[in-house]
Amino acid sequence: MPDPMYRQIAEDLRQKIESGQLPHGAQLPTELELREQYEASRNTVRDAVKWLTTRGLVETRPGQGTFVVEMIDPFITEVTQEYGFGGVEAYLPGYTTDRKLTVTVPRVEIQKAGDIAVPELHLDAGAMVVSRFQQRSIDGTPWSLQTTFYPMRFVEEGAVQLIQATNIDEGAVGYLATKLGIKEAGKRDVMTVRAPDAIEAAIFRLPEDGRVNVFETRRTGYTDDGKPIRLTVTTSPADRNQFVLKVGKVPGTEGQAPAGPEGSHPGGSG
Amino acid sequence: MPDPMYRQIAEDLRQKIESGQLPHGAQLPTELELREQYEASRNTVRDAVKWLTTRGLVETRPGQGTFVVEMIDPFITEVTQEYGFGGVEAYLPGYTTDRKLTVTVPRVEIQKAGDIAVPELHLDAGAMVVSRFQQRSIDGTPWSLQTTFYPMRFVEEGAVQLIQATNIDEGAVGYLATKLGIKEAGKRDVMTVRAPDAIEAAIFRLPEDGRVNVFETRRTGYTDDGKPIRLTVTTSPADRNQFVLKVGKVPGTEGQAPAGPEGSHPGGSG
DNA sequence: GGGTATTTGTCCGTATGTATT
DNA sequence: AAATACATACGGACAAATACC
């Protein structure tokens, strides 16, 4: 039982939300009503609402009110030995199968390699890279951003299609193989979670207070002799994405229920 | 450039942090000093600091001040085809190799199956399960909580060691194989990210405002004929964990730098 | 241990702006 | 245009945690 008044109010509202008394999408009492119900000042009930907001339980809409957040039907990316996580090469929608995936045409830029690309691609500081950027949406909702970096050297050696803003049918990695004989023999995916930057928050329409994190997966592809050939960075909001990995023999895929607000671990702190 | 004053103050401080002018661990000016520097009220500079706090850039310590967060040396869990993510069966520390992993003795409880276990283990509502809970720490810092649920039926059929609060040398899954002939032929891992609950926040010593999320991986193990035999739920803080998956031939593992505050994707929102 | 200064946390009141209906 | 509801910003007061003497 938290001592401060705003926390008591928040816990009371939280209990009402998690018990179903305030279902998804329901409007909370207005700040004025909360102020009367709990006999607190408006700033104090605002602190309580902000506490719930930070936890992703409610969202405020200026001019309308405060609402319990809607449940998001998660997008499930299946991880396979062949593909690894990070990409959208394989995916399964949750519950329904009729979602539509759309991909923007690549935006191609030639840039100085950044703090990630330089070490991952074993480049010298100041080296140039080709970046190919795509945005993926599902049913019109932005779902992931993906940028792949290739050393500029590949273009100079003849892989000119890399700098064209069109989809490469065989895939850019396949194109490198047929054009330059550079084959990807292995890849490493690193998955982290972090707060979104301003661009990601805008594109994904995430609440601007940064409480919804994004997955960031960095995939580095290597040739047989261990030279890195590309770096793919994919970001996707953590509130609408799940990753699934199957190993061995697993029965048919039913939809995965999103994580609910129940305690998975026993109480206590031993 | 954000309009509200508290955002301008926050962006200014953010720029000082990201430029290195305020390095990791450095103390920010006190609220009184900020109030003088920016000619704003104390509540306004507090809003600015709170904005930075929500984004995980700074942390406040009552009686001391506000500080730029320390960089956390991430714990890297390597995902392999054999093991999948979720567990700590295989892991690599970041940068250094001299970290010590400690595991608590299992806490064993017999419970009614919860909202996750019932569907995952194909149980009837109200069925009983054995839960085995362990907490893992690295260098004394709590790193992951893990609970595995087994149908109570296994104990009734003779796997009595499941309900003993001791480590099972061959592993609980291996024990089921030798004792009952129940072999795990496959498993599915589902990875999500969510806000921590109160218990997790306490054990991991996460900031109580819930801005640091936790990974939750649910692993369900299946027999050859597709029957689920166990459900393992692992939670680990997203601020100190990374997951790595290697596919094919990948050169020697150098340490992975944590995600820095640089833009990976091009600007704009087209 | 006690006392004091410093710093953040909580709570109140008020006024004005902005977004939506 | 008017009403409603949240957002921002100011002011003040006291409490709680910490550090230092």
Note down, in words, how this protein is organized.
The structure is a homodimer of 270-residue chains. With 270 residues, chain A is an alpha+beta fold. In chain A, 22% of the residues lie in helices and 31% in strands. Chain A contains seven helices and twelve strands. Chain A has helices spanning 5-18, 31-38, 42-54, 117-120, 152-156, 172-180, 198-203, and strands spanning 58-61, 65-68, 75-79, 91-93, 101-103, 107-112, 128-138, 141-151, 186-194, 214-222, 228-237, 241-248. In chain A, strands 5, 6, 7, 8, 9, 10 and 11 form a seven-stranded antiparallel β-sheet that branches. A three-stranded mixed β-sheet of chain A has the order 4-3-12, with no helix packed on it. In chain A, a hairpin with a 3-residue loop joins strand 1 (58-61) and strand 2 (65-68). In chain A, helix 1 crosses helix 3 (42-54) and helix 2 crosses helix 3 (42-54). The longest helix of chain A is centred in the N-terminal third of the chain and has 14 residues, at 5-18. The radius of gyration of chain A is 23 Å and the shape is elongated. The model of chain A is unreliable at 83-97 and 254-263 (pLDDT under 50). Chains A and B meet through strand 9, helix 7, strand 10 and strand 12 of A and strand 9, helix 7, strand 10 and strand 12 of B. The structure holds a DNA duplex (21 and 21 nucleotides).
